[in-house]
Amino acid sequence: MDVTAAANQTNALESTKNGKAVENPKGILGKDDFLKLLVAQLRYQDPLNPLDNDKFVQENTMFSQLEQLTNMNKTISGLTSNMSQNDKGFAATYLGKYIATGSNSISVNGSTIEPVSFNLPENANVKVSISNSKGQNIANIDLGSMDKGPHQFKWDGKDNKGSQVTSGQYSVMFFAQNASGKDIPIEKNAGKVVAVQFSKDGTIFVTDQNKRVKMSDIKSVFEGSV
Length: 226
What we know:
The chain is an alpha+beta fold.
């Protein structure tokens, strides 16, 4: 059955009957429109040439399939909406937790130097090595013995000679050894999550260090206090 032609034919019949145009310029049928079409066909059929049974069954089958597709679309839309709400609820559980991104960049802007947070999986002796944009080591700092958990390091901006460095981006590397002298991994983090924002670009976490971190950039999540 040519649905568009049938829709336009039904529009013409309804227009003649009601004396006004039926608004369906593109001949697009929804579930209710399809049912109206079927009823109109039965109402205006030629008594001498009625709709045959096979065609009637075929059109009823099409209506049933259309209804199933419509209901399926509603179900999928509901599931999508629920999933979106669940994702937002899950993102909210990050509030108050520390997130690690693995980034080793540190920004110096005059006397303003952003701190670098990190997490120790166990008690350890920690040292810091800082390099400039050319990869040259300019500062080595011994932080001494530190307890397990999250910590924050804020560089004073001075190199090994005691001179203040210029503004720019620097790289910081942490090295840690436990009481047995074994090297242990250190997770650098972006701070504690204080807000969660939802945008067209995805979920964004805002930390107490004024960093904006995408969920896809998070390497690990942990609790504690600096």
